Amino acid sequence: MEAAQHKVRTPEEAVARIAYLASDLVVSVQPSLAADSEFSSHLKRYAARKDQSLVAAGAGAVPDILSVRHNADPLLSVFTPIRSGKLVSVTTPSSVLLPAISHLYKLANYPVVLHVALQPRNFADYSVITAIRNSGWTFVQSETLQDAQDMAITAHALAIRTGKGVIHFFAPETSSKDEPIAVEEAAVVRDIIDMDTVRRFQSGSVGASGLYADDGHVAVSSDHPEVDPTGVSESVANLRPPASADASKFTSAGTSIKSSQASDAGTPGAPISVATTVETAPPPVTSEDIYTCATRIWSSLNSAVGRQYSAFEYTGPDNAQNCLFIFGSDTGTFAQVIDNAKPDEIFANTGIVTPRLYRPWLGSKLVDALPKSIKRIAVLEQIHRRTTKWGPLLIDVVSSIKSGPGGVETIVGHQLGYIATEAADQALRGILQNLTSAAPLQNLEVGVRDAPAERSDYVLSMPALETAYSKILDQLFGKRTYIANALRSQNTGISSTVAATPEFGFGSLIARKDLRKDFVSEVKEAAKSQDFITEGPKNWLAKWAVASDDLSKSTEIADDVISRLQTDGSPIAQKLLKKQGLFRKESLWLVGSDAWSYDLGNSGVHHVLASGENVNMLIIDSTPYSEKSNADANRRKKDIGLYAMNFGNVYVASTAVYSSYTQVLQAMLEADKFDGPSVVLAYLPYFGESDSPLTVLQETKKAVDAGYWPLYRWNPDNEKKGEPNFSLDSELIKKELKTFLSRDNQLTQLMNKEPQFAASLAQDFGTEVRAQQKRKAKDAYNQLLEGLLGAPLTILYASDNGNATSLAKRLGNRGRARGLKTTVLAMEDYPLEDLPTEENIVFLTSTAGQGEFPQNGLAFWEAIKDNTDLDLATVNYSIFGLGDSHYWPRKEDRIYYNKPAKDLDRVLTNLGGKRLADIGLGDDQDPDAYQTGYAEWEPKIWTALGVDKVDGLPDEPPPITNEDIKLASNFLRGTILEGLADPTTGAISAADQQLTKFHGTYMQDDRDVRDERKAQGLEPAYSFMIRCRLPGGVSTPKQWVQMDDIANELGNETMKLTTRQTFQFHGVVKGKLKPAMQAINRALMTTIAACGDVNRNVMCSSLPTQSKYHRQVFACSEKISDHLLPSTNAYHEIWLTDENDKKTQVAGEAVQDFEPLYGPTYLPRKFKITIAIPPHNDTDVYAHDIGLIAIKGKDGNLEGFNLLAGGGMGATHNNKKTYPQTGRMLGYVKTEDVHIACEKVMLVQRDHGDRKNRKHARLKYTIDDMGVDVFRSKVEELWGQKFEAEKPFEFKSNVDTFGWVKDETGLNHFTFFIENGRIEDTPEFQMKTGLREIAKVHKGEFRLTGNQHLILSNVKDEDLDAMKALMKKYKLDNVQFSGLRLSSSACVAFPTCGLAMAESERYLPVLISKLEACLEENGLRQDSIVMRMTGCPNGCARPWLAEVAFVGKAYGAYNMYLGGGYHGQRLNKLYRSSIKEDEILDIMKPLLKRYAVEREDGEKFGDFCIRVGVIKATTDGQNFHDGVAEEESEEE
Predict the structure, then answer these.
(1) From 118-122, 691-695, 817-821, 1335-1339, the region with the lowest mean pLDDT
(2) Over 60: is that where the pLDDT of 19 sits?
């Protein structure tokens, strides 16, 4: 396993290695799943190297390592594997033993080995061992480092040979100064543990009905006598070296809780053996059997390595009269002191004896080990908490040794405390003086009771993320919050482990309630007192006493009472003020973890629930959803919610803060109001302390969406109101809960009352759903093909973006036309077991990520890649792959090009398949992209199948394009209404998905849960994004509140402020789409033309410093928006009618179905207009189809606009025909003509834009193809006017200015920093709630900025203080962020954007955090550097204009661009391709440092990168791909 020269340095390492060698499964008990124990770090290292075990019967002979939290009942994980014939060992701290005592009795007759490190490390408590001494286990003790290795071997050999459980215990600190030891040879271990017995055990199993009943299993010994090959006689064992010879061997200690008699280790029961095939009932294993077996093992060990062990080990003179029997960790220290003692010292010539085999206790062997000269024995027991008068070791020794004349005369018990090394001689002197006195004292304490404080890894701690729920409690209840078992609370004399139990917390809460009860009595007495200085307190105290049990009234009066007591100042007032917290009726909470869901914690939960007391439990479950399948099915983690609901009088809620913050608030408020026990189950999955909130969010969404963690509330008080007790707050519900509700007849009521939930509630999920679907689909198709002529052809596809799907279906149609029996399936829907029966099969696969299979082919690939059972000798196959040879430009990454197709071809060949035709590879870099390669490959298939010369093939219809969809839509109607009315799916048709964009909504699905839903056999979690049309980004406070309501009631409880100055809602399910549209209309807004091939939302600079001028420019944005609005009546027909088709719209009435501007096919592509007001280019005026630069006249009023045309951000990775572009100057236009000029530019694009290739359809390409002069002339011709020469202007930045400013009219404006535009509440920051509260009282307006931030506008001076107070309350006044963060922007990307290739909004803040220390170091914290990130190259956050940009390439990988203009005037350029976070940081940190040192005065980061040659300047979009820093070299 390890190199020969490796040395073992700790007992935990020695033990871990032996456990690994001698086990099929090692249960590794850890402080947490994120923190390794002293054992687990070694176990994981061995497993990671795939080191082989001597006994493991699994794949590669590598044992399984199962990590379990120390407080999660770890021994539960032993039962199933040990009963199924697996050898199990456990590495654990001693803290798990007492709570698991019921398991120990049941496991005693199985060959389980527990390696126990006694705690605390610096002063071990042996009472844990003595407390379980009668559990039927064999106990062996080690003291030195070498002992630990040898006793670990002994323990495993004993367990295997005797069939009994063995506990090997040791105090780690005793060997902390030992020299490193050599690794024991594996061959020695193999010889000693008896491999024949190992294999016999592994070949059997034990039937058991459960964990609670005794299964009747009896241990049977397979041990047999062995001939000592060395011929060493037993007399060798009687040689006794002096104390110093083995002084270092003694370092372990022990304690006891209850006395015991020596007991037989065997327990009676049914004679079932898994260690032998003998059918007659063998006798149970006796104590003598175990001793004999141990002796043989030690004899073998002695023969192999020369080290000798015995049941009791004595060191010291043969003629000693005094002896120390030590069960503790000071043995080695005492031995050294005795060995170095002067001859006249009282403890000189004292012997020491320690138990090696502690149980079974064999008193006769102790007598044999002692010299006959011994007269007096001092028993030293290291027990921290004495619970009996006589120590258990003392009783053992007394019962074994007959005292009297001629033998041992005196046996004295001592309690061994902590003894510093330098005090050992003094301690020994005291022990011997007491032992040799005429009347020795029993139970004399030696040393001090408490050792120096030491931090334990096994104390309870709350992960950083878990504070989320406690923060919510504080936010909701403030000073009323009382958490009985808060981790930071001080409980004198109580360990943190005990304090965190439900029993302790419950007792604490009851005491707290009694305290308040006494306080109420005290107040009532005080109200009658004459001892107050003033009269005020008495009346208020009387009022309060009457209302003391009323939550709202007592809280309302409390502040008045406290105020008057403070004013009074009398002694009686001061006395009451010391307990002023009790004037408020407290919200009493117990906070626990999912450890309470196991049996050992559940008894406490039961106690709380059964009490009926008005207390609340918050139980946080941290098991990640993706790890649920790894959990031990036999660990019996109970559903506390279901359990609690069975009581009938308990409030229960299941919540998840990263799924629905609002629901958490509602549940906690209801729990607080409920008069009785309440349980709030709170989901917060985490793998480790380093988890990002993004990881927690994704895990939460998977759990909630799949029904693993349903969100619900169960309130028995609802029955009084005639409402259902049960409220389902998430779409899905798990089977167990559904069963309970059915039994309680609540489900039926709920389905009747809430029919929209009926389908969701009725869903059940099984592991075989997908397999059944695959089989039924294929069998049904085969039936259709029965009787058809022609050869069979199966076509399987794996598609990432639809291209492979389209090719496969087209290939199927063409095959059918040639007379073939074709079947077309996604790879994931194909039953792999059918593959050897195929005659002809073709695969088409695209390439995802870093050379990975697309998601709908991944399961197929995982099943076939290592499969050795398939025989494809009769199968003819061919493969076509779709890829991009330049997608991964670095030479070392070229292997990713079409890797899935190449890998599949290799595997099928290895399985014996024969090629119909050689593999075909489509390359996006070819002239016709993948079609070039496909055109060469497909004819080879027809030739191979003999159907290449078929006459009369039908003409194939051309593919349906967006232009066809628009033309056939009847002015954007399509079948949208029919799709909305379809209850069988959350989706709409593909054609309607294109049309709804014109209505302001995109269909999306939640990609965080896409894979899990696919595995469950469910359709994707479809929902819709809705984007408002909000010209200029100006909203009233009332509209803000209305938007907030829509997000809460119809969306996902968040809003997005977009880079186009408008509101965007996500997570709107189909059934809520129409209500959301109507709510937006009621707010006097609309969504029409917010998306689609029309002119979209018109942007306008926010300009908080010049309100009058802003109003003039803003009016133009409204005018342009209204002028270019589509005229179709479809929007009103579809969205703004009630159930009777009656129109209910508020904002306008369309009167005709005719598009005078757009025509029936609208524009070739989307069209965007923005207005910038110099010197602020905060709307990125160069990035749009039309960019208007406002020109101010000499009188300070708006005069007109410079008009730029042909900007655009969309591009495609590695397609050099696509590129971003900046707008070109057409000239100046007067204010009154600007809307007409915009119209004519748009109409030229309508008539001349490319309608065949959507990647070439934007205005930028039209202008580049025509040339600027030609395009300008066409606009002027259509307009009948000419552009004037451009007017001078200057831009100084394109970022927002944060904080307070005052405009020229005296009104105040505050720009909030809204990171990436996401308006939401979190436990740390209630942004959304705060903005809502501000909107309720604000009298001005809100302005959304083009950088995704928000301006509170037009605040009068008299309202300023109130506004500032609200902002401070909700932390909205904080703009003290780094310049880099303030200048950053990101698109939505995952999880809702279907185009995203990588994270953006959720990742950019994390990346910036990792760069901010570097900024701080180099003095750049306040410097504005424009950084943007998008999840794909379509450019929603306008990354191509940023000084530094990251554009998603694959999940976790980005293209990096540098050199954009700080004013938004210059495009950046590719610097590095496909880099991940570590590479990003390695590039950015030195570059930022260099910028700090080498920049010129006032030089911006993008300009600096160009000046020093880091990157070349992009002067025009058409040279965007030229001279990049990382050239894409061709393959060699």
Answers:
(1) 691-695
(2) yes
The closest alpha carbon to 1388, from 1402, 1409, 1376, belongs to 1402
Q: What angle do CA 972, 978, 983 make, to 5 degrees?
A: 135
The closest alpha carbon to 47, from 517, 867, 38, 56, belongs to 56
**Measured distance CA(17)–CA(112) in Å, rounded:** 16
Least confident of 266-275, 1069-1078, 1216-1225: 266-275
**CB-count burial class (<10 Å; 0-12, 13-18, 19+) for 1500:** buried
Q: What's the mean pLDDT in 383-389?
A: 72
Is 42 in contact with 13 (CB distance < 8 Å)? yes
Kindly give the pairing relationship between strand 1444-1450 and strand 1427-1430. parallel
In terms of average pLDDT, the best of 613-617, 1270-1274, 1289-1293 is: 1270-1274
| 917 compared with 855, residue with greater pLDDT | 917
**Three-point CA angle 952, 957, 960, nearest 5°:** 165
Phi, psi of 1187 (to 5 degrees): -115, 120
Average pLDDT over residues 1386-1411: 94
Q: How far is residue 1283's CA from residue 1276's CA, in Å, rounded to a whole number? A: 7
304-341 CB burial, b ≥16 within 10 A, e <16: bbeeebbbbbbbbbeebbbbbbbbbbbbbbbbbbbeeb
Nearest alpha-carbon partner for 162 in 140, 134, 193, 188: 193
C-alpha angle 436-438-441 in degrees, rounded to nearest 5: 75
Higher pLDDT, 1287 or 234: 1287
pLDDT in tens, 1094-1123: 999 999 999 888 889 999 999 999 999 999
Q: Which structure tokens are listed for 993?
A: 């998905």
Q: What is the 3-state secondary structure (H, E, C) of 1359-1404?
A: HHHHHHHHHHHCCCCCCCCCHHHHCEEECCCCCCCCCCCCCCCCCH
Contact 712, 750 (CB under 8 A): no
- Nearest-Å Rg of the Cα atoms of the chain is 39
Three-state SS at 825: strand
75 contacts 25 by C-beta, under 8 angstroms = no
Distance from C-alpha of 499 to C-alpha of 495, rounded to nearest angstrom: 6
Mark 1072-1090 as b/e (b = at least 16 C-beta within 10 Å).
bbbebbbbbbebebbbbbb
Q: What is the C-alpha separation between 874 and 1327, in angstroms, rounded?
A: 65
φ/ψ bin of 1067: left (φ > 0), alpha (ψ from -120 to 50), beta (otherwise): left
DSSP run (H or E) holding 1470 = strand 1469-1475
- Taking residue 1520's Cβ as centre, other Cβ atoms within 10 Å add up to 22
Tokens of 1223: 């707008």
Counts of helices then strands in the chain (DSSP H, E) = 48, 48
Distance between CA atoms of 1043 and 1047, rounded to whole angstroms?
A: 6
**Rounded Cα distance, 291 and 347, in Å:** 32
Judged by average pLDDT, the poorest of 430-444, 482-496, 683-697 is 482-496
Residues serving a catalytic function are: 1027, 1096, 1166, 1168, 1387, 1393, 1432, 1436
**Tell me: the pLDDT tens digits for 894-936?**
889 999 999 999 999 999 999 999 999 999 888 888 999 999 9
Spatial neighbors of 828 by CB under 8 A, at least 6 apart, are: 770, 774, 798, 855, 856, 857, 858, 859, 860, 1014
Cα separation, 90 vs 16, in Å, equals 9
Q: Give the pairing of strands 1063-1068 and 587-593.
A: unpaired
The C-alpha atoms of residue 1453 and residue 1456 are separated, in whole angstroms, by 10
- Torsion-angle region of 952 (φ positive above 0: left; ψ -120 to 50: alpha; else: beta): left
> Does the pLDDT value for residue 249 go beyond 50?
no
322-327 sheet: strands from edge to edge? 312-315, 351-355, 322-327, 376-381, 410-416, 444-446
Q: What would the two tokens of residue 1343 be? A: 């302005």
If you count them, how many residues does the chain have?
Answer: 1532
